[in-house]
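[Protein data]
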Amino acid sequence: MTSKSTLPLPALRALQKLGADLALARRKRGLSTADMATRLFVSRDTLWRLERGDPTVAMGTLATAAFLLQVHTRFADLAAPSSDTVGLALDEERLPKRIHRPRSQRP
């Protein structure tokens, strides 16, 4: 079991925000905690832990909740290469400054 104290604070806050956002989405859709837990095949306690941002809740439970609330496409694109600003910047730094033609192709 992972202790909350082992997580970087920004990661813990992100999980808490994600959980709160999922709880809000559930309530906007008029789903009770009992109904949502049943659809997730988990206990209400696990659902409450998910909505509090508990890092020990299974990723599969999180993904299923995102699917049930119809926000799974955004969840799937969380680490998409097209939105990876650090990766894109590193790719750009690795580009060669010049491109030389091979000698055999020169006139």
